[in-house]
């Protein structure tokens, strides 16, 4: 079945570390991924604020200094990752995009309203955010949007910050700032946007914000969500976390193993079709384990030359990532505000006991790979792309 070819936004966080994006995504969604960049501050005069802070030494000075340091760290990590992924970007495997969204006072207040709508409470939502990326959003709010709101008057900007940090805790401010990007898929006006969540914890928040979908979606999106999760967990041991060697391997696989990539994708889609209407995480986990045992165990074992212990490790790793599968269940229930969504973050430690054994002749191995839907797993495991 042909996969939907719409773009997929890697959302809401920019790529700031090797655990932000699974290397398997570049194989599964080649040419469709659009990653976002950290928030930029182009109003450099706004940084004159820090001279006033240093002179007056308000009680919140240390807190804001820590926020600025986190923002700088976010940019440094983002630049490191973009340098690492440059070969894949240049070859068109993924794209970069600036996100356009409001970060003014009204937008910050809207974030508070999202928390109220969720009925989770600020402290509960605070546990769902990424604090480093939240710091970047807070800096953008203050040093760009608010600076423009107050007529580029640094004195007025200081007064705003003084009131802001005295009125609300840093935890609350970071939480509200982190939610500034969320209206992209919670506004009810962006149902055509497909996203890949970098933060699977947000699924519990989205479940309370978005309208539930009614009826089946076109193009079997539900099946594709699970197919991607199976694909990712099978390959994650060999492709995550991202580093120069693994990026080079991904590039070689994309260049020379397109047919094997497509075979594994189709196989995962076939397996995913058997996971429809699973009501609970426990049922989903046991069903994943069973279907792999019944439909894939022998083929994977043949390709990787696994003994019984190795295959047991593979099956266990494939189906026991509770956070990932809980999120998948939420997505299958249609709780992401009507959008197509998948989980992309985290290097799941799948196939932890699996190694590419030796012992067959090269001819036998070649014949097995040509026939197997799991040939790509061997390529990734051995590094022989």
Morphology: elongated
Largest β sheet strand count, sense and barrel closure: 5 strands, parallel
Elements, N to C (H/E) = EHEHHHEHHHHHHEHHHHHHHHEHH
What radius of gyration results from the CA coordinates? Answer: 23 Å
Query: Beta-strand percentage?
Result: 5-15%
List the helices and strands and how they pair.
Elements lengths: L7 E4 L12 H5 L4 E4 L12 H8 L4 H24 L1 H5 L3 E4 L7 H14 L3 H5 L4 H19 L4 H14 L2 H9 L4 H4 L7 E4 L4 H8 L11 H19 L4 H13 L1 H15 L8 H15 L1 H8 L3 H12 L2 H11 L7 E4 L18 H10 L3 H8 L3
Parallel strand pairs: 1-2, 1-4, 2-3, 4-5
Helix pairs in contact: 3-7, 5-9, 7-8, 7-9, 12-14, 12-18, 12-20, 15-17
Q: In words, what does this structure look like?
A:
- By secondary structure, this protein is mainly α.
- The chain has one domain.
- It has 20 helices and five strands.
- The chain has helices at 24-28, 49-56, 61-84, 86-90, 105-118, 122-126, 131-149, 154-167, 170-178, 183-186, 202-209, 221-239, 244-256, 258-272, 281-295, 297-304, 308-319, 322-332, 362-371, 375-382, and strands at 8-11, 33-36, 94-97, 194-197, 340-343.
- The chain is elongated and about 70 Å long.
């Amino acid at each position: 079945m042909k996969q939907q070819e719409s773009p997929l936004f890697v959302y809401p966080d920019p790529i700031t570390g090797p655990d932000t994006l699974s290397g398997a995504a570049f194989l599964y969604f080649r040419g469709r991924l659009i990653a976002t960049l950290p928030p930029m501050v182009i109003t450099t005069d706004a940084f004159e604020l820090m001279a006033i802070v240093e002179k007056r030494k308000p009680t919140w000075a240390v807190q804001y200094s820590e926020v600025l340091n986190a923002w700088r760290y976010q940019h440094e990590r983002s630049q490191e990752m973009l340098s690492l992924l440059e070969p894949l970007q240049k070859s068109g495997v993924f794209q970069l995009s600036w996100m356009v969204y409001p970060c003014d006072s009204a937008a910050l207040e809207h974030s508070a309203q999202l928390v109220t709508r969720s009925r989770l409470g600020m402290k509960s939502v605070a546990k769902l955010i990424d604090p480093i990326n939240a710091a970047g959003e807070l800096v953008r709010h203050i040093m760009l949007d608010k600076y423009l709101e107050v007529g580029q008057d640094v004195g007025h900007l200081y007064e705003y910050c003084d009131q802001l940090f005295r009125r609300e805790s840093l935890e609350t401010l970071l939480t509200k700032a982190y939610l500034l990007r969320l209206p992209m898929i919670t506004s009810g006006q962006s149902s055509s946007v497909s996203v890949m969540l970098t933060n699977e914890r947000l699924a519990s928040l989205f479940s309370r914000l978005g309208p539930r979908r009614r009826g089946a979606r076109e193009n079997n999106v539900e099946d594709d969500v699970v197919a991607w999760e199976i694909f990712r967990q099978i390959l994650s041991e060999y492709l995550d976390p991202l580093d120069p060697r693994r990026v080079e391997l991904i590039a070689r696989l994309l260049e020379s193993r397109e047919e094997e990539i497509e075979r594994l994708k189709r196989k995962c889609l076939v397996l995913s079709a058997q996971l429809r209407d699973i009501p609970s995480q426990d049922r989903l986990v046991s069903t994943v384990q069973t279907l792999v045992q019944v439909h894939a165990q022998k083929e994977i074992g043949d390709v990787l030359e696994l003994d019984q212990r190795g295959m047991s490790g593979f099956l266990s790793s494939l189906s026991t990532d509770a956070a990932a599968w809980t999120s998948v269940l939420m997505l299958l229930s249609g709780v992401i505000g009507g959008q197509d969504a998948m989980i992309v973050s985290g290097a799941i430690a799948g196939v932890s006991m699996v190694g590419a054994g030796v012992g067959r002749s090269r001819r036998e191995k070649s014949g097995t790979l040509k026939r197997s839907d799991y040939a790509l797993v061997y390529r990734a495991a051995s590094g022989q792309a």
